[in-house]
Amino acid sequence: MRTTDKRKNCVPGLLHYEACPTRDFTGDCTGAYKWLITAIYFWRTNFFVKSKQAAKAGTYAAEHSLNKHQVERYSRHLLLNSFGLTAQEKLCSSSVLIVGCGGLGSPAALYLAACGVGTLGLMDHDSVDASNLHRQVIHTEERVGTSKAQSGRKACEALNSLIKIRVHEEALSANIALSIIGQYDMVLDCSDNAPTRYLISDACVVTGKPLVSAAAVGTDGQLTVYNYGEDGPCYRCLFPKPPAPENCSRCSDAGVLGVVPGIMGALQALEAIKIASGKGDVLNKRMLVFDALSGKFMTVKLRSKRAGCAACGEHPTLSMSSLPEFDYKAFTGQEAQDGPPVPLQLIPSSERLLPRDAKTILDQALKDSGAIEPIVLDVRPRIQYQLMHLPHAVNIPIEELENRMPEVKELLSNRSGSSPLLVICRRGNASQLAVQQLRMAGYIDAVDIIGGMTQWSRDVDSSMPIL
Ligand SMILES: [Zn+2]
Which residues form the Rhodanese domain (predicted)? Predict the structure, then answer.
């Protein structure tokens, strides 16, 4: 029977009476065999080395590499039978790079920081915008306008000061990808553009790193692990040809329910933890698909490696030397950056109007006719028009413009003065396309507004929200 006295007689330094090596033989931890058995135990468990290490922190001994603070902080992992000490030790010595500190990267970074990943890399070239905050929960109102990577660092450091955090305040490009990814055990792709997705996947194949990839747009999410296991495919194996740019939805255009990337990012953290700790079945050769509105998860089986894959196939063309030269922008036909699209230059600037000049024309039309004429054509999607629009602007989304030319004719028939037909969109790209269509249809005085409603808000009416 265990007593306080027996506890005192246990081998000095052992944390648990039950672990005393003399207990089973002597019953009360005393007697002639005690020191012989103890000596054998010390030798077999390398006790003296571990005791020396432990002595730095205190008087106890333990058979692991975690210090007091780590044991206390991660105790719920350590107590978990299906996870435990060895898994936590592996986690604490692992390193993970998160590319993109946005909707996916926010929860992923927080959970990986919290669970004790040894080194966490945070990469993002962008700054925090107010429109990010509904889903990018690692950032705060106070940090709007500051670097996302630094904002992420502050949040993770505040959560767990025991881990190392490296910040990469730059966009991942082909010439730096291998050197940065090579510093980590694995990568989380939390970006949302095609060039970066291909680059990260290729760099992970070339450097031999697993890639935890997720996406979230609208109310849908998906998740898989690339380049993992014997014949696990890479991103190129599944998508050897990039999708057409017009088929790539971005949150900034298509919208996203904030909690969806939160869920998918947390699942990315889970896969990273499984890879680092060696626990569980990693989600490779399978894709998890999430439908938020129905609350359903579905797992789709994926193909194995593709023999002809340029990255991981039998005769790859991408390598340590060739990858830095690969032109991902040309390959995908898209810019390697998240956020707003690059401004188009389809119409010479001299044939376009700045928002302030357009406002002057509108004011003059009002003065001349006593009422604003129907001379503003808003070609944004209806939902954007409903959120806010210029007074008396008429909404014909650009996708419908060709079929609705008779309506344009009808509107212009009411025009009494010589005011031009002003065309506006969200940022000044679609409006140029619309003007080209209108001019083709014979409306040669059609002119678009540079920077669209976004620039109008900045230059003319700051009370107008920027989408
Ligand atoms: Zn491949």
Answer: 370-465
One-letter amino acid of 157: E
Amino acid in the structure at residue 270? L
Place of tokens 């031009």: 420
Tell how far the Cα of 201 is from the centroid of ligand 1, in angstroms.
8
Q: Which of 37-41, 42-46, 224-228, 458-462 has the highest mean pLDDT?
A: 224-228
Distant-in-sequence, close-in-space partners of 272: CB < 8 Å, separation ≥ 6:
96, 108, 112, 117, 186, 188, 212
Tracing tokens 């359903």 back to the chain, one arrives at: 296
CA distance 256 to 103: 10
Q: Is 131 annotated as a binding residue?
A: yes
Is 382 known as a binding-site position? Answer: no
Q: In 10 A of CB 332, how many CB atoms?
A: 22
Expressed in angstroms and rounded, the spacing between residue 130 Cα and the centre of ligand 1 is 38
Please state whether the predicted TM-score (pTM) of the whole model is above 0.85: no
Domains of the chain, earliest start first: 4-63 (no CATH), 94-332 (3.40.50.720), 349-459 (3.40.250.10)
pLDDT in tens, 79-115: 999 999 999 999 999 999 999 999 999 999 999 999 9
Provide the 8-state DSSP code for 256: B
Q: Is residue 134 marked as binding?
A: yes
Least confident of 37-46, 344-353, 385-394: 37-46
Taking a C-beta distance cutoff of 8 angstroms, is the pair 428, 410 a contact?
no
- Give residue 229 CA to ligand 1 midpoint distance, Å: 13
Tokens (6 digits) for 343? 């401004």
Distance (Å, whole) CA 175 – CA 283: 30
* CA-based R_g, the chain, Å: 31
Instruction: Identify whether the C-beta of residue 282 lies closer than 8 Å to the C-beta of residue 228.
Output: yes
Long-range contacts of 130-133 (CB under 8 A, 24+ apart): 131/252, 131/466, 131/467, 132/102, 132/103
Q: Which of 403, 388, 395, 463 is nearest to 431 (CA)?
A: 395
What's the 290 CA to ligand 1 centre distance in angstroms? 24
Q: Give backbone dihedrals phi and psi of 213, rounded to 5 degrees, phi first.
A: -115, 140
Q: Report whether 124 belongs to an annotated binding site.
A: yes
Q: What letter does residue 392 receive in the DSSP assignment? A: T
Residue labelled with tokens 């990260």 = 200
Cα of 304 vs centre of ligand 1, distance in Å, is: 9
Please check if 445 is assigned to a binding site: no
d(CA 351, CA 143): 39
Cite the active site residues.
Answer: 251, 425
Distance between Cα 189 and ligand 1 center (Å)? 16
Say if residue 193 carries a ligand binding annotation.
yes
